[in-house]
Amino acid sequence: MSRRESPPPPSPPPQLLGVQRGEVECEDRPERAEPLSDTEREIVQDTWGHVYKNCEDVGVSVLIRFFVNFPSAKQYFSQFQHLEDPDEMARSSQLRQHACRVMNAINSVVENLHDPEKVSSVLALVGKAHAIKHKVEPVYFKILSSVMLEVFSEDFPEFFTAEVQMVWTKLMGAVYWHVTGAYTEVGWLQVSSSAV
């Protein structure tokens, strides 16, 4: 009688490779984020103009997908963590307000791409607030970035070509780099099993 071997544990989703629960990528963290070229900045700013015209609706779509696909993220939002139904989420004024805050933060980054110090300053504030005040695990920024790019690509396929998606992926990598730098700066140590 042969013994059955247990299957290997499932692999993490591709967007989460290199990040363990509650950890900031410190060892593999490059010394600095790769800056966007002038052409890449123009691509981001041009495509963002189309997205930002529908700021609130797009932001709500992003957060709904984020919370439906990663329900553990709702633990950080007492005002709407009880919401399960996407339609109910869409009607939540608190969720809509947070969606606007997220989109406005991205807008601040996009508007200031010509000024790396300003971008770094904006993202440091976001990172520190989420680390110290809200105690959000940094991996959620990487997850949210992926969700944003999915929604943008689906809602605006005429603008989010493969080339544009690559540029936005580079930008979101830089956003994550700056945010995790703020976590490192404040001595982020929290580890939780709830992230993924």
From TrEMBL:
Q: Is Metal-binding included in the keywords of this UniProt record?
A: yes
Q: What is its EC number?
A: 1.15.1.1
The molecular function terms in GO held by this entry are:
heme binding; iron ion binding; nitrite reductase activity; oxygen binding; oxygen carrier activity; superoxide dismutase activity
**GO CC annotation terms, alphabetical:** cytoplasm; nucleus
Q: Where is it located?
A: Cytoplasm; Nucleus
User: From which domain of life does this come?
Assistant: Eukaryota
Region annotated Disordered, chain positions: 1-37
Bilayer-crossing residues are none
- Where mainly found? cytoplasm
Matching entries from SUPFAM superfamilies are given as: Globin-like (SSF46458)
Biased composition, class Basic and acidic residues, residue ranges: 22-37
Q: Which residues form the Globin domain?
A: 35-184
Q: Which UniProt keywords apply?
A: Cytoplasm, Heme, Iron, Metal-binding, Nucleus, Oxidoreductase, Oxygen transport, Transport
Swiss-Prot/TrEMBL catalytic activity: H2O2 + AH2 = A + 2 H2O; Fe(III)-heme b-[protein] + nitric oxide + H2O = Fe(II)-heme b-[protein] + nitrite + 2 H(+); Fe(II)-heme b-[protein] + nitric oxide + O2 = Fe(III)-heme b-[protein] + nitrate; 2 superoxide + 2 H(+) = H2O2 + O2
Similarity comment: family membership: Belongs to the globin family.
Question: What does the annotation say about its assembly with partners?
Answer: Monomeric.
Q: What does this protein do?
A: Probable multifunctional globin with a hexacoordinated heme iron required for the catalysis of various reactions depending on redox condition of the cell as well as oxygen availability. Has a nitric oxide dioxygenase (NOD) activity and is most probably involved in cell-mediated and oxygen-dependent nitric oxide consumption. Under normoxic conditions functions as a nitric oxide dioxygenase (NOD) but under hypoxic conditions the globin may switch its function to that of a nitrite (NO2) reductase (NiR), generating nitric oxide.
Q: What is the protein's given name?
A: superoxide dismutase
Tell me what organism the protein belongs to.
Haplochromis burtoni (Burton's mouthbrooder)
